[in-house]
Amino acid sequence: MAAFSPELTVIYATIRTLDDQHPQATAVLVGGGRVLAVGSREEMAALAPRAHVLDHRDLILTPGLAEAHIHLVAYGFSLAELNLHGARSVSEVQARVAQRTMNTPPGTWLRGGGFLLSELGLDEYPAAAVLDEVSPHHPVLLFSRDLHLGWANSLALRLAGIRPDTPDPVGGRIVRPLGTLLESASELVTRVMPVPSEADFLAAAKAGVEDLAGRGYVSAHTMAFEEPEAPRALQTLAARGDLPLRIWACLPHERLEQARELGLACSPGSLFQWGGVKFFADGALGSRTAWLHGPGFAGGSGTGMPLDSPDLIRERGAEALRLGLTPVTHAIGDRANTEVLEVYEALRPLADEKGIRLRIEHAQHLRPEDIPRFRGLTASVQPIHLQADGPMIRELLPHRVDTSYAFRSLKAAGAVLAFGSDAPVAPPEYRANFAAALTRRDDEGQPIAPAEALTEEEILWAHTRGPALAAGWEDEGIIRPGARAAFTLWDRIGGNARALVL
Ligand SMILES: [Zn+2]
Predict the structure, then answer these.
(1) CATH 3.10.310.70-classified regions of the chain
(2) Which of 17, 42, 94, 144 is surrounded by the fewest CB atoms within 10 Å?
């Protein structure tokens, strides 16, 4: 074999390839953004004696970390918003809001998020009056960590024209006394907020992707549930050569028509790709809008809120498949999962014909009899949510503790596990995903279904190869000839990480 030319790079490291044929190596040869060969240092030196050498012999090299569920531009915006993660009481929320008002001109909107009702010690939906106490002159809208609940003050409600007798919008609920807005009801407020400019979107997109790349990620699946300007900003970064990540993006199903008209031209080699069409089968556990089978929430607060109907998902899902796009459906409650699995059963022949893997987001609380039906599907799950959800699961769904976040069972059933964080719902912290999936411990230190724990190797796979397969990227999440030269370097797996993209 002829020796390769000199603009090549050899990386020395302890290499975990995730390729069953050659799981371990000590050197990898890279050129033109691709892996050319994998083996020992001597073998690579013989192949490319004049290659540039990156010596990371003290580190572990794996396929690059992927984030399989993020709202990338919303995450970028959130980095500049009022951050309520970790707030443990209503007075702590008040203090953080009060602080922000001091540095903000009156009349300017305050937007924030990251709280959980359970962590604030609230059994009831919060009222506007609590925020009015600390922010009478700034309109305020705060989102719960799961983004399914908005908490507004009176000024924000007044600007949105919401009064005690305003009817609930389709797909949402205005809680009385006023203050809490569930699901689509939050949009009554967001639509009167100042619209971010194109430059704002670009800045947020850049902040989001740079933050992720800085954490060691090389790719991300960005979900819909963002303004159309969000993916456009990512596309602009890609066109400028300013995108440090490879991106697989979802369209909201409402825009499928447009997609068909425009065609989804994907320039070959571009780091940005349209891949999925997003549906929502239900809401979320913390906001009591997850769609459940009977007996429902233990508190007697009902069986949740179905959103996109199964018929709609079936019809538009088929349309998505015909366009070569992956149906991607949010399903948290056990009923939502049953219904989506039913729909996917009907879509499976078309999906198989198109070579597309159907995909469920969250798959959080399952009936045992539904788990085998995940065979061949992508289960896009977020172990980090288990940490905050544990106490809520015990309280609200005691009959589903053993089949919540059922990673091992899903894997055994033949699902492809793809790990993400759902940022800005939770921070994009792979460390927390490793910890949650290994130990199954929640924020109170209690285990949730410990038999569902995964090994470190399995978690690494679900953060690299799993997302790649979910996106249909055979050339990613594995180190073998032809693969994208996008790696993560570790001091130990799950420890400190750094991206290395050549
Ligand atoms: Zn999400």
Answers:
(1) 83-190
(2) 42
Q: Any idea what the Cα angle at residue 154 is, between residues 153 and 156, rounded to 5°?
A: 70
Instruction: State the distance from the centre of ligand 1 to the C-alpha of 249, rounded, in angstroms.
Output: 12
Give 51 Cα–ligand 1 centroid separation in angstroms: 43
Residues carrying CATH 2.30.40.10, the chain: 1-64+477-502
Taking the centre of ligand 1 as the mean of its atom positions, its distance from the CA of residue 330, in whole angstroms, is 8
Of 249-263, 307-321, 352-366, the poorest mean pLDDT is in: 249-263
How many CB atoms sit inside 10 A of residue 114's CB? 23
Q: Which of the following CATH numbers is that of domain 83-190: 3.40.350.10, 3.60.10.10, 3.30.420.40, 3.10.310.70? A: 3.10.310.70
d(CA 153, CA 178): 9
Helices 383-396 and 430-439, axial angle in degrees (round to 10): 50
Half-sphere exposure of 15 (CA within 13 A, CB side): 27
State the pLDDT confidence band at 1, using cuts at 50, 70 and 90: very low
What whole-number distance in Å separates Cα of residue 377 and Cα of residue 278? Answer: 15
40 conformational bin, left if phi > 0, alpha if psi -120 to 50, beta if neither:
beta
CA 36 to ligand 1 centroid distance, Å: 36
pTM to 2 decimal places:
0.86
**Residue 49 Cα, ligand 1 centroid: separation in angstroms?**
47
Average pLDDT over residues 18-26: 97
Phi then psi for residue 219, to 5 deg, are -155, 160
Q: What is the Å distance from ligand 1's center to 226 Cα?
A: 10
CA 381 from chain center: how many Å? 8
d(CA 209, ligand 1 centre) in Å: 16
* 3-state class (DSSP) for residue 15: strand
